[in-house]
Amino acid sequence: MDESSPKTTANTVRLWSYTKPEIEKDTKKYKSNSFGFYAIRGNSVIDFPEHSKKENVMEFLERIRSCNPNGRVLIILDNFKSHHAGKVAEKAQELNIDLVFLLPYSPDLNSIEFIWKSIKRVVSRTFICSREIMCKVIEYAFLTLSKSMSYAKSWIPKFLPPEVQKTING
Questions:
Q1: pLDDT of residue 41
Q2: 12 in a domain, yes or no?
Q3: What is the pLDDT of residue 110?
Q4: Does the residue 41 lie in any domain?
Q5: Parent domain of 81
Q6: What backbone torsions phi and psi does residue 146 show, to the nearest 5 degrees?
Q7: Average pLDDT of the residues in 41-58
Q8: Is the residue at 20 inside a domain?
Q9: pLDDT: is 137 or 7 the higher one?
Q10: Is the pLDDT of residue 96 over 90?
Q11: Average model confidence (pLDDT) for the chain?
């Protein structure tokens, strides 16, 4: 699970050209606070809360559980302040969700970071004319990309037991 705030002003598209390329770009600035849960087994979830406060994290945990009602849910998180709130831990325990926190300054260990990077690339290539359109683009990209296990490919053999790996790989 992680948060991201893709913006229309970010430019992650690289071009190669003999001359200066002309790029048509919407000059309006849109930003969308996004929460994402990348499920290795189960259903991935995305939401667009106004803020990233502990109350928003607690609501997102409820959404994760409602989309994944059966079995164990283990969420890997970074050390964002609202993730460590006591009420978030209580809500996770109430919902039978295990929270695992990454080492400080190690976002590369969270496979969802690579999905956010890909989404930002999609947003930078798309002409966005409203915040609603931006949210739809992000949601579609997230749900499409989160179906791929390639983002967690190097992570799975290191952290999951062989019997679980077999169920994921089919």
A1: 82
A2: no
A3: 81
A4: yes
A5: 2-7+29-158
A6: -70, -10
A7: 93
A8: no
A9: 137
A10: yes
A11: 84
Q: In the chain, count H helices and then E strands.
A: 6, 5
What is the total count of domains within the chain?
1
Q: Looking at the domain assignment, is residue 36 inside a domain?
A: yes
For residues 144 and 140, give the distance between their C-alpha atoms in angstroms, rounded to a whole number: 6
Contact 60, 3 (CB under 8 A): no
Average pLDDT rounded to a whole number, residues 84-98: 94
Helix boundaries (H) for 14-155: 54-67, 86-94, 112-125, 131-145
What CATH number did the domain enclosing 92 receive?
3.30.420.10
- Mean pLDDT of all residues in 111-135: 88
Residue 116 DSSP class: H
pTM, full prediction = 0.80
Q: How far apart are the first and last CA of the chain?
A: 24
User: Look-up: residue for tokens 């990348």?
Assistant: 38
In angstroms, the CA 4 to CA 19 distance is: 34
Q: Which residue is it, tokens 């229309």? A: 8
Confidence of residue 159 (pLDDT cuts 50, 70, 90): low
- Could you identify the residue written with the tokens 């699970």? 1
CA 138 to chain centre: 10
Using CA atoms, how far apart are residues 50 and 54, in angstroms rounded to an integer?
12
Six-digit token string for 13: 């598209």
